[in-house]
Amino acid sequence: MKRFRPIALLGTACIAALMPVSMSAAEIVVDARQYPGPAWSPYLVGALLGVLSWLTFYFSDKPIGASSFYATLAGMIGKLVAKKHTESLAYYKTNPPVADWEFAFVIAAVGGAFIAAFSGGELTGQWLPPMWEARFGEGTLGLRAAVAIFGGMSMAFGARLAGGCTSGHGISGTLQLSVGSWIAVVCFFIGGIAVAMLLFAQ
Q1: What is the DSSP string of 17-74?
Q2: Per-residue pLDDT in tens (0 to 9) along the chain, 202 residues
Q3: CA–CA gap between residue 138 and residue 66 (Å, rounded)
Q4: How many whole angstroms separate alpha carbon 178 and alpha carbon 186?
Q5: How many Å from the N-terminal Cα to the C-terminal Cα in the chain?
Q6: How many other CB atoms are found less than 10 A from the CB of residue 67?
Q7: pTM (2 decimals)?
Q8: Backbone angles phi, psi at 90, to 5 degrees
Q9: Which sign, positive or negative, has the C-alpha torsion 198, 202, 122, 193?
Q10: How far apart are CA 41 and CA 35, in angstroms?
Q11: What is the pLDDT of residues 74-92, one digit of tens each?
């Protein structure tokens, strides 16, 4: 993984060098410190996420990733209910289900999201967003839960099939200028737009 460090730094430097040019062409002036509203600035958080990716590569010699969390969690549950069968699976022979740094990363991401929502004034306590209620009506919590569960399971399956998620491909892979990761990110956006159109298009 050490061989990826120069590529990661070069890719990030190229992107950073092109940003002022593209912003100047579009005549966009953004001050990350003066983002309107109580929420955290996405520009500042995005920059910090890039720094986190640098540090992850440097100290752990591994890219940021989250999709393996689900496989690890499934393995932990499997060891509780069917230990011999779980340990006999080829995947868990090479990837034993233990609480490693990637497992801790996802747990910390959930905690960080709660802190960001609470401190940014976005912890509303609403089960159904206004956009959802406008499209499907009130009292559709069961439908919302079913769609969320199905979507989450589909996304996790797709991430494992593609060898990475929005973290592994979208952050770490694109930072390394991986062609496969860039293709995956394009597909992420296409899939997201298609689903949004199906759900919310009038």
Answers
A1: HHHHHHHHHHT----GGG-SSSSPPHHHHHHHHHHHHHHHHHHHSS----THHHHHHH
A2: 444 454 444 444 444 443 443 344 344 455 655 666 667 888 888 888 889 888 888 888 888 888 888 889 999 999 999 999 999 999 898 888 988 888 888 899 899 888 888 888 788 888 888 888 888 988 899 999 999 999 888 888 888 888 888 888 888 888 888 898 999 999 989 998 998 888 887 6
A3: 33
A4: 13
A5: 48
A6: 23
A7: 0.66
A8: -60, -40
A9: positive
A10: 5
A11: 999 999 999 999 999 998 9
In the numeric block, which tokens belong to residue 30?
Answer: 């953004």
Q: Which amino acid type is present at position 141?
A: L
What the block records as the tokens of 21 is 């040019």
Domain positions in the chain are 127-202
Residue with tokens 């969390």: 69
**The residue type at 45:** V
In order, the DSSP letters of the chain are -TTHHHHHHHHHHHHHHHHHHHHHHHT----GGG-SSSSPPHHHHHHHHHHHHHHHHHHHSS----THHHHHHHHHHHHHH-HHHHHHSHHHHHS-----HHHHHHHHHHHHHHHHHHHTT-----SS-HHHHHHH-SS-HHHHHHHHHHHHHHHHHHHHHHT--TTIIIIIIHHTT-HHHHHHHHHHHHHHHHHHHHHH--
Rounded CA-CA distance 201/69 in Å is: 33
